[in-house]
Amino acid sequence: MNIEQQILEYFNHFHTHPEVSWKEVGTTKKLAAIMTELGVKHHTFPDVTGLIAEIGEGTEVVAVRADIDALWQEVDGKLQANHSCGHDANMSMVLGALLYLKNETLTKRVRFIFQPAEELGNGSLSMIERGAIDEVSHLYGVHLRPIEELPFGQVTPALHHGSGIFLRGKITGVDAHGARPHQGKNAIDVIAAIHQFIKSIYFSPFESYSAKLTHIQTGGDSLNIIPGSANFAMDVRSQSNDLMIELQQKIGEGLAIIAKLHDVEITFEWTDYTPAAEVSETAMQIADAAIRDTLGDAATAPPVHTTGADDFHFYTIKKPQLHAAMIGIGADLTPGLHHPNMSFNHKALDIGARVLANTIKST
After folding, report:
1. Residue 60 is assigned to a ligand binding site
2. Is 262 one of the annotated binding-site residues?
3. The overall pTM is greater than 0.85
4. What is the pLDDT of residues 75-94, one digit of tens each?
5. With the C-alpha atoms ordered 213, 214, 217, 221, is the resulting torsion angle positive or negative?
6. What pLDDT was estimated at residue 272?
7. What is a GO molecular function of this protein (predicted)?
8. Is 165 exposed, middle or buried (0-12, 13-18, 19+ CB in 10 A)?
9. What is the C-alpha to C-alpha distance for residues 257 and 272, in angstroms, rounded to an integer?
10. Which of 26, 66, 109, 286 could disulfide-link to 94, CB 3.0 to 4.6 Å?
11. Could you tell me the domains of the chain?
12. What percentage of the chain reaches a pLDDT higher than 70?
């Protein structure tokens, strides 16, 4: 079996055995079995999923990261774990890079970080706490891109992700009989006010941002009761970390005003923060040269700015001297990332693996 076929075999296994964040037990066992079979030194952790492997010799350490978790979503009417963000592909491309590099004469150590819980925005922190980037000078990530960003055959040396965070909130008002609305404090009225408010937040149009309700839970089976309480959540995004701070402040101030206006209590917390990309020019230039060497100038796309978020960028936030960039792989991916029926051209897997291997060798 050649390397391209082996990469596809890895992908098919991970695709048919998806596991959600922090529960990637079988995925971790499979990765460990692959490393054992290849004779690659590696270690897992007693308290979290994920794996770190290493090849080569020397004092310099270059690393590459793959995220390993799946999403939990409805697919054809059934709730299940599903690799609709392409982490099965990311793992396979990184394993492919390992295969391409394993028998090379390396003058440095190459570390392979298989990281859990990217979808929750904090899996990278668990790897950082466990020494994943200790001694590392350069770090590369890889991710499939939707067709509107990159078509098949195109590869970018850098993804400029935006910042993302969730708000989880609770409204506490007063229930009332449907015939006596004046006796209650209707949580649905408050939800409507919040919805209108976040649609009226404006910053400069030269930088992308958004805030939207993504979860509302209120009321029960009795349709003649006006619900006083509700739980809600928001997904909040911005292209920069500075704008995210302003956006959070504006939302917090608005919720306080709405609570006073409707005479209810609104409590909330911010969770699962993911920082915007801090791309290293050095790492990006190395990746750019490697793409051109592997695929040619015509296949080398400029850096991509995307509104999506990725906790890969915590690595540079926590270690600012780290030279890091995430490589984006065009794969004719449709209808889009996180769509339950996402599909892509599987030939992109070998392209990504070869680009990664060449990038690492060139570092």
Report:
1. no
2. no
3. yes
4. 999 999 999 999 999 999 99
5. positive
6. 87
7. hydrolase activity
8. buried
9. 25
10. 66
11. 3-160+277-362 (3.40.630.10), 163-274 (3.30.70.360)
12. 100
